[in-house]
């Protein structure tokens, strides 16, 4: 059920890339296949392989894996008001998570850092290319 949505996000990222725009997208791409679709679009589903060089090369995306213990994330969820993500779904999110790994282009940032430290670490990774 997420694949059409992820394909739409891929299309948006591709459009922005074609216009020379840098883009930041926030979504919970918990599974490796979801991240693969964001990079390669619908062809990732059909072949389970990145697109071949040519008309639509795979997008270059830096994935930021925000990592932290369940109790810290649960505490933050409890403080949210009017958010769609209920605390009851947190365990299933952890169960579903396939953390990024090589050869994916990613950084892992600890949620135990301050917000400023998190932002600076992400910004540094982006600027380093």
UniProtKB/TrEMBL annotation:
It catalyses: D-gluconate + ATP = 6-phospho-D-gluconate + ADP + H(+). It is an enzyme of class 2 (transferase). GO terms for molecular function: ATP binding; gluconokinase activity. The keyword NADP does not apply. Pathway: Carbohydrate acid metabolism; D-gluconate degradation. Keywords: ATP-binding, Kinase, Nucleotide-binding, Transferase. It comes from the Eukaryota. This is gluconokinase. It comes from Cettia cetti. The lineage of its organism: Eukaryota, Metazoa, Chordata, Craniata, Vertebrata. The gene is Idnk.
